[in-house]
Design goal:
The protein is an alpha+beta fold and about 525 residues long. About 30% of the residues lie in helices and about 20% in strands. It is built from 10 helices and 20 strands. The chain has helices spanning about 10-35, 35-40, 65, 70-80, 170-180, 190-215, 220-240, 290-305, 340-355, 410-415; strands at about 45-50, 55-60, 90-95, 105-110, 125-130, 160-165, 170, 245-250, 255-265, 270-275, 320, 370, 375-380, 420-425, 440-450, 450-455, 480, 490, 495-500, 505-510. The strands form 4 sheets. The protein has a 7-stranded antiparallel β-sheet, with helices on both faces. Strand 9 and strand 10 (about 270-275) form a beta hairpin. Helix 1 packs across helix 7 (about 220-240) and helix 8 (about 290-305) packs parallel to helix 9. The protein is globular.
């Protein structure tokens, strides 16, 4: 006989899939109702459900850097507003120093109460959706400034802002925040439309959770939330048992260095991940908030598990993560962080795989490309080669690790923006050779038809993606411009440039590292 203290294996599987299904339903609503290309076409969003204490229970397979960090946002809301959270409220947060990642990733959090709210005064669950806003203000269109030095220059900060108060959308106050900033939002109507889409997605999650409670009873639903987390914890402990101690140091193009030592405790089937020795907080924007560092660790250890488990808080229980305060992986306010979320997170993941000897370096960048003016703002991340492993080749032209978004269809991009996708092709022989070879990167050429500001925020233009066990490293990437008059301008890893009609922006992305010597 199974009780609320011991899970029924069949029911465990049912509930695990039910929780994930709810998050997927939320994602479908968000995609269908969003206004921006970023959310609707590129799918740069994530949805998840959380237990009463804000711990991640289940998510849809969306963006890893979002999913591993959203719990920090929910728990910061509970700590900050715990006593005042009421049914019908929705909160908005993107504060990198309170569980956020970077300012464009704005999270809408909705508390879930029983339909009969007389029975409980605290939320039983939380649902949240995080979407990357095409523009949230800041010093450059698209809110991904290559050269920001403080978080204020990156845009508008929401810190557990009350977006909906007991069913009433607070449009006047949210518009005031979007406009009342040294670097205000350039398209507040689109921000509002996407916020409303996030609210709609959360409402679907609330409805589905209430249906679940009506069908199975609150005690069963909450018990299986715990069981699903316990199951994930056990799966990670089993995976840890197969690992060996290791350490790795990985330099970035800007001279910063990430150091990590992984120590396995076989007796307790646990691991310590220690980032002591990593470079101190930077004056640039490659600082990664602690929530991002945690998300990267969580992602790596989840990928080591063969079982089909949801990424949730249970995966973290066997892990002790040490990140010294004031280093670039745990910066203090008001450090700039926009590249930490998208670039440094990739370096953390590759360094961890290097320490564990599991996989060579992937392209190690999201190749963040933004362009815009006061009318248009666009953001995309561009694929490259993934690293090879002990028994597999890397993959050509894929989004690797902490990103999992799509690229906008050329037809949609060219309809919505005054640009032409001149070509988009594989970059032959950019993957490192080895017994198993790294994947190839890509070449993307975008021709501009109107004057615009374009920005590239990338990595591995100087430091090649590393190889393991005698393989060859991947090729570094390359950013450059071909002006209409035929002149060429080479760009650094990070750059802001003014584009004129007829100019072409070319991005060549890195290949992945090889694994093992060629026999």
């Amino acid at each position: 006989m199974y009780t609320t203290h011991q899970p029924d294996p069949v029911r465990l599987e049912i509930f695990k899939n039910l929780y994930q299904f709810i998050a997927e339903q939320m994602g479908i609503v968000l995609q269908n109702t969003a206004a921006s290309v970023n959310i609707k076409e590129r799918l740069d969003f994530s949805c998840a459900i959380f237990d009463t204490s804000g711990l991640l229970v289940a998510n849809a397979p969306h963006i890893p850097v979002h999913l591993g960090s959203m719990s920090e946002s929910v728990r910061s809301l509970i700590n900050d507003k715990g006593d005042t959270i009421k049914p019908g409220n929705v909160y908005l947060s993107n504060n990198p120093y309170n569980g956020g990642t970077h300012l464009p990733d704005v999270t809408a959090i909705t508390p879930v109460f029983l339909e009969d709210t007389t029975k409980t005064s605290i939320p039983l669950f939380y649902v949240a959706s995080r979407g990357h806003q095409a523009d949230i203000g800041g010093i450059t269109p698209g809110s991904m400034p290559p050269h920001s030095t403080t978080v204020e220059e990156e845009g508008i900060l929401f810190d557990n802002f009350l977006l909906v108060e007991q069913g009433e959308f607070q449009e006047t106050s949210v518009r005031g925040i979007l406009a009342n900033h040294p670097y205000p939002a350039r398209n507040p109507d689109q921000n509002i439309a996407d916020f409303k889409a996030q609210i709609a997605a959360n409402n679907r999650g609330v409805q589905e959770l209430q249906k679940m409670v009506n069908q199975y009873g609150i005690e069963t639903v909450q018990s299986y939330m715990n069981f699903v987390q316990d199951n994930a914890e056990e799966a990670v402990r089993r995976a840890i048992n197969l690992l060996k101690n290791g350490s790795f140091s990985y330099a970035m193009d800007n001279g910063a260095e990430i150091k990590v030592t992984v120590t396995i405790d076989r007796k307790n089937r646990s691991a310590t991940i220690d980032f002591t020795g990593t470079s101190p907080q930077l004056k640039s924007n490659f600082n990664a908030p602690k929530a991002v560092t945690q998300a990267a660790v969580l992602y790596v250890f989840r990928t080591l598990v063969d079982d089909n488990i949801p990424l949730n808080a249970g995966c973290l229980n066997p892990l002790e993560i040490i990140v010294p305060i004031g280093c670039m992986l745990n910066p203090t306010y008001p450090a700039a962080v926009v590249a930490g979320n998208v670039e440094t997170s990739q370096t953390i993941v590759d360094a961890l795989y290097g320490a564990l000897g599991v996989m060579a370096g992937s392209q190690g960048t999201m190749n963040n490309f933004t362009f815009g003016n006061q009318r248009y703002q666009y953001y995309e991340t561009i694929c490259g080669g993934s690293g090879a492993g002990a028994n597999f080749n890397g993959t050509d032209a894929v989004h690797t690790h902490m990103t999992n978004s799509r690229l906008t269809d050329p037809e949609v991009l060219e309809t919505r923006y005054p640009v032409l996708v001149e070509s988009f092709s594989l970059r032959p022989d950019s993957g490192g050779k080895g017994q198993y070879s790294g994947g190839d990167g890509v070449i993307r050429r975008i021709r501009f038809l109107e004057p615009m500001t374009a920005n590239i925020l990338s990595s591995h233009r100087l430091v090649p993606p590393f190889a393991l066990n005698g393989g060859k490293p991947g090729q570094v990437g390359h950013n450059w411009i071909e002006r209409q008059d035929g002149t060429q301008e080479n760009l650094n890893s990070t750059a802001t440039v003014q584009m004129q009609p007829g100019d072409v922006f070319i991005i060549e992305t890195p290949g992945g590292g090889g694994f093992g010597t060629v026999s």
